[in-house]
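User: Can you predict the 3D structure for this chain?
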Amino acid sequence: MGIEIFYFLIFPGLLFCTVVGGLISWVDRKITARVQFRKGPPFMQPLYDVIKLLAKETVVPLRGSATTFILTPLFALFGATISAVFIMLPVLGIETGFTGDIIVIVYLLNIPSLTYVIGALASGNPLAAVGASREMKLMLSYELPFLLVLISVIIQSGMLISLSEIIAFQTSNGAFIGSLSGFIGFITVLMCFQAKLGLVPFDMAEGEGEICDGIIIEYSGSILAIFKLTKYIMFLILPALLTGLFFAGLSFSGIHILWSILKIMLIILLISLIRNTNPRVRIEQAMKFFWVWMNLFAIISIILAILGI
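Assistant: Here is the predicted structure, written as structure tokens:
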């Protein structure tokens, strides 16, 4: 029992992922600043942001459900943390996981997004309801191509449905990113994760210039800080999952430390460049993009995986 609590609260769970995810968030903001010819925030800015929010008053709206409104950030943080445990243990090679854990991970990764929707609806704010509607439509759009690419990965690995076994297969036979089907699948999942993180061009659920932060418009103080910590965790575990699915995971022994850091930084760089070189799209454009183009890419990836290409 003790080791499970350590995994959840310390490493590779809550504490580790919030610290490293905050660092990744800082890197993303520095890249954004450089693209825009700015200096960017100081190294400790992610920590300052959380401390500042914790020191502020938490305001609960009179309309809607106060209990649900307050509890949803906690469920979001729990979902992100338990996802981190299931993803990071196999990716880091600490434990082997279990057969079918890749399916469990798909479900767990949906918890934060669902809590954003529930919390927004519980606030009673009409702008939050618009953001919740957009978030739900976005989820229905990007989840299918993500699942189709997972089928492609499973086919490439010889019908393995354990993340640790998929990583071990790549270690022995080469990373999937080196194949055409793997490369197409990687691009597809990268775009899906861009939407799951709520980053431009798929940040219409918050839409600062349109619906004033949308799904989080009514959140403030400590409960908004919890949402920020959830975002930090997601900033780490989604790129880590990508490395596990297409780059044979991470290793922190010897020279592999540098290679593992480069894998994560490459994915963060791609996410940041997509974020800073594209305008926000409308929700119907995002849905068309995923339902048509990303599904098409995912199906092509499956066909190529069946053909062994």
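The chain has a mean pLDDT of 91. Residues 126-156 form the longest helix (31 residues).
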